[in-house]
Amino acid sequence: MLEDLSRPVLGLAYVISIAFYLKLLSAFALRGFGVSSVVLENSLTTALLLFIGITGKLKGLSKLELLETYSVNIKLSIIVALIFGHIYFNFYSLFNGQWQLLVFPHEEMATIQKLLGMLIIIQGFETSRYLGRDYSRDVRIQTMKNAQIISGVIYVVFITSTLTAFNHVHALGETTVIDVCRTIAPILPALIIIAAVMSQFSAAVADTIGSGGLLAEGMRDKITTKTSYLLITLIGVILTWLTNIYTIITFASKAFAIYYAMQLVLSTLVLLKQKSNGARYIKIILYLLLTILMVAVVLFGIPVKE
């Protein structure tokens, strides 16, 4: 029963995250042309949502999924280049006696709440779990493991290597990473814009596919998967115009936190039925702690900016 309840929650989280991904894509794309306009960002996001929804309705998203495969490969190559650039910057600064971390004024509790509201940035690995109609069990398990390992390494290394570059940034926004990269090398902002556009589009397509399958399954195939793609993107259009990007991030984070909490409770119940051993108890404690963290995201997470 808990598994059945978690599926519509995940579907809702996907719908919210699709709007977030494409709003962020629009912000980066327009920033590449020196444009900063909420109306233009929302208009571009709407056009992209309708493109994905109509394409999905008429032809399905298999071709866009193929495009996603190529974009992921290019994106990973760019990310590796960015990481090496930042690592070089750190060593260069260190050897020249310029390496330092500035401490910026902040409210500790508010900072923690903002971090809780950004849970969505580490989600995505669960998408392939619900593609059982298209991929085998072993393939789906392996892709989830690979996604967690690769993304985990990238997050830790990239964020750590960019800390000193933030010393040269004086204003924060959804595209601040462009300014951070500009302090390293002139070519990096262009690369980060390309990577951002590709990553957000591929993530939006992946979540549209995942949520479309969940919606069709939840409706017991009363609507086709192709029709669900269009419905989902239309909801995304509404969210795009009613909220800003920071609010969407927090909404999506809380929706995913509810889903993860349900999955953690389900995993704990499964473990309780297994034979007792040391590893079992460690996992139970870990899952309970993570469940508490997910509840904290729902109760205390706030947007980075109002």
Topology:
Blueprint: H1 2-31, H2 38-59, H3 62-95, H4 108-116, H5 137-162, H6 176-182, H7 188-218, H8 225-242, H9 245-272, H10 278-300
Helix pairs in contact: 1-2, 1-7, 1-8, 1-9, 2-8, 3-5, 3-7, 6-7, 7-8, 9-10
Keywords:
306 residues; 0% strand
What features would you describe in this structure?
α1 (2-31) crosses α8 (225-242), α3 (62-95) runs antiparallel to α7 and α7 packs across α8. It is globular and about 60 Å long. The chain has one domain (2-100, 127-244): Up-down Bundle (Amino acid/polyamine transporter I), CATH 1.20.1740. The protein contains ten helices and no strands. It has helices at 2-31, 38-59, 62-95, 108-116, 137-162, 176-182, 188-218, 225-242, 245-272, 278-300. The chain is mostly helical and 306 residues long.
What's this, in brief?
The chain has 306 residues and is mostly helical. The protein has a single domain (2-100, 127-244), classed as Amino acid/polyamine transporter I (Up-down Bundle), CATH 1.20.1740.
Characterize the biggest β-sheet: none
**Shape designation:** globular
Distance between the termini: 37 Å
CATH architecture: Up-down Bundle
Classified by CATH, the class is Mainly Alpha
- The structural class is mainly alpha
The overall number of domains is 1
Mean of all residue-level pLDDT scores: 85
The CATH topology assignment is Amino acid/polyamine transporter I
DSSP E strands, number: 0
Radius of gyration (Å) = 20 Å
N-to-C series of helices and strands:
HHHHHHHHHH
Count of helical stretches: 10
Our estimate of the beta-strand percent is: under 5%
Task: List unreliable stretches of 5+ residues.
Answer: none
- Helicity, in percent? over 70%
Q: What's the CATH H-level homologous superfamily?
A: Amino acid/polyamine transporter I
